Amino acid sequence: MHTPEVTAPPTEQTIDPAPTTAPDIEKTEKSKPAARNVTAANKAETSRSVIFLDREMSQIAFNWRVLAQAEDRTIPLLERLKYLCIVGSNLDEFFEVRVASLLAQNTIDGELAQHPAFQFMLKRVSTECHQLAQKQYELLNQEILPQLSRKGIHLLRHSERNEAQRAWVKQYFEREVRPLLTPIGLDPAHPFPQVVNKSLNFIVSLAGKDAFGRGTGIAIVKAPRVLPRVIKLPDELSDKGASFCLLSSIIHSHIEDLFNGREVLSYSQFRVTRDSDLWVDEEEVKNLRQALQGELQTRQFGAAVRLEVAKNCPEDLAKFLLEQFSLSPDRLYPVDGPVNMVRLSELIDHVKQPNLRFPPFSPRAISKYHHADIFTLLRKQDILLHHPFQPFQTVIDFIRSAAQDPNVVAIKQTIYRTGMNSDLMESLITAARLGKEVTVVVELMARFDEEANINWADKLQRAGAQVVYGVVGLKTHAKLALVIRREEGGHLRHYAHLGTGNYHPSTTRFYTDFGLLTAHPGIAAEVNEVFIHLTGLNKPKKLEYLWLAPFALQPQIIKAIRNEARIAREGRPGRIIAKMNALLDESVIRALYAASADGVKIDLIVRGACALRPGVPGLSENIRVRSVIGRFLEHSRIYYFRNDLAHDVYLASADWMNRNLFRRIEVAFPVLEKSLKKRVISEGLDPYLKDNVNAWVLDSEGHYERKKARSKQASFCAQQYLMQQLGSLSERNEE
User: Which of 176, 272, 568, 699 has the smallest count of CB within 10 Å of its CB?
Assistant: First the structure.
């Protein structure tokens, strides 16, 4: 595998108040602020499309950037296939949630609104998604699969299997598949069946009469959900490598065996994507958990929003399916391959060739934390963790130690996503069983994690923990844990963990996030105030350190932006750097525009959707936006404000989106120790502003261009640099 050359960022005096340089890759000259172009700004106000980029198109553009990773020939083959699967998963969620929501909001009495702007937007989204899906399958069929085959990994269609392989597949079909199939011939007694969201199905056109002399011409076959989608053939049937076939291919090649005495005229696999957003009237229900459990049972059968069929699906069958799902032709997606590309991730799991993957990476153990009691350490200093470059195990050890420490009297924690298996949750259960006061704020409405969270809530309650479900109508998205310990003299001391990511064992290995462990009296006490607010539903006290949504987070962000604008108007350097997953809130964007017009230099690192137009004269000429797509999912939220060399650094659970600022419980927290501020800047911001390998730069029209090293300039990859600096990276040459 080709590894980009990594050079260290220039040494910077980031925190020392003496220098006048901004803490990033370039120096900011001390000059008079540029005069605001009032005319241009006023003209821009006449049209939102002039001021803001389209959210849906920006979200699709993010998936084009992910797809570019699959196109990158310097990336190992299985990783390229993984990026294809990620695009498939992202598109699924885009249709299940975003497109479904837009359609629901614009449907009146069952009819879709004909508003020209809405119809134009739908058409643009449809065109882009069709092009994206087409490119996905072109990459799969023309590059990824042929190259995997040359490496000895064969995904065989029926026509590509030899006689011995076909015989084995037939036996597998008869033994494992056929007993689980239930073909449904459509007639008045057998109407079109309920089709589960994103499930694999087949539509079959038949000739001749059925066993009762009737001409039932259409049948539906549902693929069993309990069977794997990728099946490995025995090693002895694979010449020089490993051979696989898809469940869809096995059913395709034996579908005629299901209709004895009938002629199969044509058939196609198909898959329908449905509205999967759960809706519960939280103000009306008496028991949110019970109501949500009921909703989970119906999620699989929401309104259809997309239909995928095989590329060679006959037109009459495709039309029939569209009618059954009440879909217009523009929501039909014929694909040249499996209708659910995400299932190919099973192939990745099967293959054991290390040279087809990224070099192994392990977070480097933080030795000084292993030889001392964590509470003793925290009384001396805060601990800053940068995942996945540093181990999340430190956080697990923090909660585990608290659960077992006889001096700990209480543990409080928020749970948004934690997965089905979690050492953290087991530690909380242990603490409750040992008689400690355990309070867990479980967010039941965490999308696609509802079932896991309900299960954990039940286990925690049975162990004696106090479980609450946050605030009605507001998702609890803040990442907080609090330990209260009785120490010498009998007084209580608070220890806290605050993070930008989830308490999920899987995502902590693949998402970049920051976490802060602290015994700072002010911060830890305010974390406790947040918990009291969440459980007691009382008005929160005024907080000095934490910015809490939906009360103070947005006003504090606006205040900090305006402060930089004031500094710039007074002739001193104004500087803002922010890193997040999405930037969509109009109030924040307008504040950034105003600050730009006042001369503030602004760099935004926005991984996904961004509605801000950078580089527009008189509006945003001092704003640059970039997106970094790499091996790890960029997930940390960092807000930096120069503030006359005070260098204010905040980490947060919140993106700059309307939902985060006004419809969720979110927390932004300050990094106070100078050494840790410097670390956040030098690890979380500077490398990403220098990246010329995985970075994409946004222009004022909404287009992204990949940042490339200039002539004689060394390549610099932020994630590679951090892996080498903080983790343990094994170098390996590709075979």
Answer: 699
